[in-house]
Amino acid sequence: MGILLKNGLIITQNSQRDVLPGDILVEKDCISSIGKNISLNGHEVIDLAGRVVAPGFIQSHIHLCQTIFRNLSDDLELMDWLEKIIWPLENAHDESSLAVSAQLGLAELMLGGTTAVLDMGNGRHQEVIFREMFNSGIRGFSGLVMMDRGNQAYQQKTGDTLETTEELIHEWHHTVTDRIGYALAPRFVPSCSLELWKGVRNLAEKYGLIIHTHSSENRKEWQLVKEQTGYSNIEFFVRQDLAAHHLCLAHCIWVSEEETEMLRDYGIHVLHCPSANLKLGSGIAPVPEFLRNDINVSLGSDGASCNNNMDIFQEMRLAALIQKPRAGVTSITAQNVYDMATLGGAKALGLENKIGSLEEGKKADLIVLDLNKVHTIPADDI
Fold this sequence. Notes:
- The protein has 2 domains: 70 residues, Urease, subunit C, domain 1 (Roll), CATH 2.30.40.10; 292 residues, Metal-dependent hydrolases (TIM Barrel, Alpha-Beta Barrel).
- The chain is globular.
- The strands form 2 sheets. Strands 6, 7, 8, 9, 10, 11, 12, 13 and 14 form a 9-stranded parallel sheet that branches. Strands 1, 2, 3, 4, 5 and 15 form a 6-stranded mixed sheet that branches.
- The chain has 13 helices and 15 strands.
- By secondary structure, the chain is an alpha/beta fold.
């Protein structure tokens, strides 16, 4: 017996971006039929008259380990924020505190309509995050944060972190459930040695994994990368043959025209986090330019410590509004940001054939919205 969702207004996000009244039949965990007046045939029926049925949102850059650091780190720029607040707190996690942080973050995400995530993980007790993701029912990827250079207090041994990573891959990459996968998580260029990047590249090639890291978020970080490597962030990834793999880069604020071309030519995914970029004073990513170059852009709330919440609706709103004074009122549309929060996220996770839209044969990762609320009336243009 399946579940028949009747009489909803369906935002399909199919190639025609159809919005249509109708029914959705869910059997097991997949959409088996979309249409009008689907036969009941003994299915459980849920009447959604007056409701909107939409694809679940996908957040492509979050830090579940930072949820309980909410409101502890205001009015700091990126490098001070990391070194003075975040790295000491992340390093202080024990299994219990990390579990609570992940549980709280996952509850906030799912209650807010997010059904899939790309999480940055933590440098310790990473199995706890995987366990909580599995228990929650969410779909997503996470990975052990890798840092083998920089501050000695948080520095991992290169061989040890690569070995632990491979053990976690065997344990969690689509083994316990197909909902949960492994994404390699080197923190960013300044905290990773060339030897570690080589190991990351080899693991990505061996297991076909996402590489998830930060890039070009802050001017000081950009300058540090230039001083350490002789290259800009994006050029470094290209020269290290990391861009030839499924590379997901959070932020990408300080990028040149040449780097934008690299993002396009190598099919690199940009993970846009507008709230976090504003709170840390990092800047505004040139998203309209990315879209004009057919670069895939998705959205994330980053962490509660650099955002104070994990609300995808806030990220969509800001993603549109912050570009209008910078690039013009038509530079980012509502459809653009909705695509980022659904289809763009699905592509970033490599799951565009499974999620991101409501179509027959895809997973039934969907949400139901009640627009009969004071702040959503009238809802004339959906």
